[in-house]
Amino acid sequence: MFNDETTSSITHCNLSLTSAVSWFGAHAVLPNLNANAKIFSKKAVTTLVTYILFLALININFKLKFMPKCVCNGAKIKCSFGSGPKSMVVLPISRTTTQMAKPLANQLDMIPFLNIPAFGQCKSPLNPMNWKMAGPVPVFVPSSCIPVPVMPWGPVATKTKIGKQPALLETSKTMCVWAGSIQFDDPGTKKIEIK
Q1: What are phi and psi of 122, to 5 degrees?
Q2: Helix (H, G, I), strand (E, B) or coil at 7
Q3: DSSP letters spanning 10-58
């Protein structure tokens, strides 16, 4: 499972491969001294083969590098309108792989102040608590964050389930009612990768 940035990069590589083949067709077939004969330039063939191998290695690297990690207790999450990253809490209810492992999060771990902490000061202009009246003119003054997620996390794992719900990935996001994008800054683990 890839995020949008990875998919875009792989698509770009595939388009580059198509461009390379087109270039090869236009430049690598050179007229020989004989009138009607055409041959492949050794340099062009070598260049094209090197380019194709390079693109193949990039695709393999993307597949290995961007297999997302799961999210566990203590993961750092942030809001686009918040003050900074905070720690997520995942209750240890049928959520561990071993006795020593941290509890793993699933799609429904989105309860305000339990799973999703307050992010300090809310800077969203859509939050009515951030507008104070200074005489007849409203003035923007950031207020304390009250996270109100409006939808479950997504995207989530397609194959792995934690507590009968899809496992949460480091690429998962949710939205606050005040238009803040809540996402992970650090999944809390570097070892557990899932699909």
Answers
A1: -85, 130
A2: helix
A3: HHHHHHHHHHHHHHHHHHTEEE-SSSS-EEE-HHHHHHHHHHHHHHHHH
Token pair for 94: 């049928």
* CA angle centred on 66, ends 85 and 185, rounded to 5°: 0
93: nearest Cα among 186, 147, 20, 165: 165
Burial class (CB in 10 A: 0-12, 13-18, 19+), 109: buried
pLDDT tens digits, 56-100: 666 655 554 567 888 999 999 999 999 989 999 998 876 766 666
Q: Please give the Cα distance from 183 to 174 (Å, whole number).
A: 7
Question: What type of residue sits at position 187?
Answer: P
User: Encoding tokens for residue 7?
Assistant: 């998919």
- Which residue in 79, 85, 84 sits closest to 126, CA to CA? 79
pLDDT at 145 over 90: yes
Asked whether 182 and 176 are in contact (CB, 8 A), the reply is yes
Comparing CA positions, the residue from 115, 121, 122, 110 lying closest to residue 74 is 115
The two tokens of residue 29 are 């077939």
Q: How far apart are CA 39 and CA 177, in angstroms?
A: 65
3-state SS, residue 64: helix
User: Residue 154 forms beta bridges with which residues?
Assistant: 173
Residue 70 token pair: 């799961």
Are the C-beta atoms of 47 and 41 separated by less than 8 Å?
A: no
